[in-house]
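About this split. The held-out portion is used to measure sequence recovery: a designer receives only the structure tokens and must propose an amino acid at every position. Recovery is the fraction of positions where the proposal matches the reference. Here is one held-out target exactly as it appears in the evaluation file.
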């Protein structure tokens, strides 16, 4: 997922940086696709937030389990959870930051759409 979201964002960055004139319809298609992709990544981000928070809560609870039960080998379980939690946090961090960058791209696409559309209106 990390590769997919970064490649998509870079592709949109290239579209925005491209000096070639695009028509209003082309910008509208780019905008529509971008909104769909943002929706996909928002859903992915929500799922990973739920998983990350769940793992964090279970990890914190597992810290107290050995104290309540007296079974110190449960700290091994805590270490396993930490090994899973750290990558989840980094993955969620990537999803969050890339999605925020996509919001900025959306604003830029809107500016291009309005600029092209206002140029068409002046010609009429």
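Reference sequence for scoring:
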């Amino acid at each position: 997922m990390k590769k997919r979201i970064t490649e998509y964002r870079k592709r949109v960055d290239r579209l925005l940086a491209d000096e070639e004139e695009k028509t209003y319809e082309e910008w509208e298609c780019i905008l529509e696709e971008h909104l769909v992709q943002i929706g996909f990544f928002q859903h992915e981000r929500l799922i990973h937030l739920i998983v990350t928070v769940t793992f964090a809560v279970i990890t914190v609870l597992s810290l107290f389990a050995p104290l309540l039960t007296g079974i110190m080998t449960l700290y091994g379980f805590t270490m396993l959870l930490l090994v899973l939690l750290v990558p989840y946090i980094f993955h969620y961090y990537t999803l969050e930051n890339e999605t925020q960058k996509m919001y900025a791209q959306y604003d830029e696409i809107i500016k291009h759409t309005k600029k092209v559309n206002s140029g068409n209106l002046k010609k009429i």
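Annotator remark: The chain has three helices and no strands.
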